[in-house]
Amino acid sequence: MSDFAHPATICQHEGEARKLLGAVVPPIFQNTLFVHEAWENFESAVGFPVGGPYHYSRVSNPTLEVAERKIAALEGTEDARLFSSGMAAISAGIMGNVRAGSHVVCVDSIYGPTRMFLTEYLAKFGVTTTYVVGENPEDFVRASVPETSLWVLESPTSIVFRLQDLAEVSKRARSRGIATLIDNSYSSPIFQQPHRLGIDLVAHTVSKYLGGHSDVVGGVLCGSNERMAPIRKFEYELLGSAMSPFNAWLVNRSMRTLGLRMRAVQESARRVAEWLASRPEVERVFYVGSPGYPQAELRDRQMGGWGGLVTFEPSTNTREWCKSFTESLRLFQLGVSWGGHESLVVPLEYQAMDWPSPRWLIRLYCGLEAGEDHTADLAQGFDAAVSLR
Ligand SMILES: *Cc1c(COP(=O)(O)O)cnc(C)c1O
Questions:
Q1: pLDDT recorded at residue 47
Q2: What is the pLDDT of residues 317-366, one digit of tens each?
Q3: What's the CA-to-centroid distance between 206 and ligand 1, angstroms?
């Protein structure tokens, strides 16, 4: 599928064989439409083949195809499409696999807006969803009914980082003719390639690691040509979900450093997680890379790394303590999202379906700053919040 075997080389060169006027960086095709001198050329653009000829930028555009080729090669899928947001990619992948009366099984700790889309929005088409913990592959089987057409996964989930066994879940789905879709945003295609383990459709928010600089909102959906063709024709084209060429050009730039950035933030997060575990202010650390991680065997089997996210439960489990702590931080800025250059902190009250009660949690994203500055900032935050203990 790709001319290159190694992810680092894919990130530099995949999709860039044609050098327009010798330009070493693919230019931005900001145009809405493409014109044709020959009738035959105009006719052959109708099927919107990858690599052109092109017709209209709502449907295909050469600037988007550069990043699409790179992401497809990394994920090991035939096709990838850039969407205007992660939610556009995820909702397209879901809508492409349900009809009125369908049933969906989804992991409980899925990204909040995905849950809202399934439960609140799709209800108006008579689509129902059952949520499962998902740590046992049989959870999906037990929750399924004859109308079940789709299983939705997110592994690791993005707050308390729980895994699903992708190979085992996809095997069970295939034997029942049920489609599988995963939100792979946590890992990026550098650290996990779910399609290689049998998952049908792989979605990412591009707003996090893939964009990487907190300046692009976007998404991507990857899969086989057969799975993607109807989604391209209907959800992508008719709902008008394409990314803008300028944003795609920024993503092409970001792809070059994806592996470097993933490894840099992972090193900082590892250091922070280890440091947090030694602090009296911390009750419990949630970190995929920790030696005592409850699903360590599965983690090592299906992931190649764990990125920059660390969550902890503070010993003083109150809103007041979380407020004082997060407001005292200087490097970790109070804000949602993650995956960019800057460190972020999100306090939230959270309850997994198998927890007896909600708990206050602090999710940290370690950015590209120096690792010792991360721990120094957290130390001064703990000192500032100490009066509330
Ligand atoms: C941010 C996020 C999304 C949504 O992406 P947008 O680009 O904001 O639409 C989906 N899944 C996960 C895990 C996310 O963190």
A1: 77
A2: 999 999 999 999 999 999 999 999 999 999 999 999 899 999 999 999 99
A3: 8
Instruction: Give the pair of three-digit tokens for residue 302.
Output: 């299906």
Judged against a pLDDT cut of 80, whether residue 199 lies above it is answered with yes
Rounded to the nearest angstrom, the distance between the alpha carbon of 83 and the centre of ligand 1 is: 12
Q: Residue 330 C-alpha to ligand 1 middle, in angstroms?
A: 25
Q: Which atom of ligand 1 is nearest to the CA of 87?
A: 9
In the reported structure, the alpha carbon of residue 153 is separated from the centroid of ligand 1 by a whole-number distance in angstroms of 14
Would the CB of 205 count as within 6 Å of ligand 1? Answer: yes
- pTM greater than the 0.90 cutoff: yes
Tokens at residue 199, please?
A: 């998952």
Ligand 1 close to Cβ of residue 210 (< 6 A): no
Over the chain, what HEC string results? Answer: CCCCCCHHHHHHHCCCCCCHHHCCCCCCCCCCECCCCCHHHHHHCCCCCCCCCCCECCCCCHHHHHHHHHHHHHHCCCEEEEECCHHHHHHHHHHCCCCCCCEEEEECCCCHHHHHHHHHHHHHHCCEEEEECCCCCHHHHHHCCCCEEEEEEECCCCCCCCCCCHHHHHHHHHHCCCEEEEECCCCHHHHCCHHHHCCCEEEEEHHHHHCCCCCCCCEEEEECHHHHHHHHHHHHHHCCCECCHHHHHHHHHHHCCHHHHHHHHHHHHHHHHHHHHCCCCEEEEECCCCCCCCCHHHHHHHCCCCCCEEEEEECCCCHHHHHHHHHHCCCCEECCCCCCCCCEEEEEEECCCCCCCCEEEEEEECCCCCHHHHHHHHHHHHHHCHHHC
Judge whether residue 115 has pLDDT over 60: yes
Amino acid, single-letter form, for residue 72 = A
Tell me, what's the pLDDT at 161?
96
Q: For position 387, what pLDDT does the model report?
A: 67
Mutate to test the pocket of ligand 1, among 155, 201, 205, 244 (most ligand atoms within 8 A of CB): 205
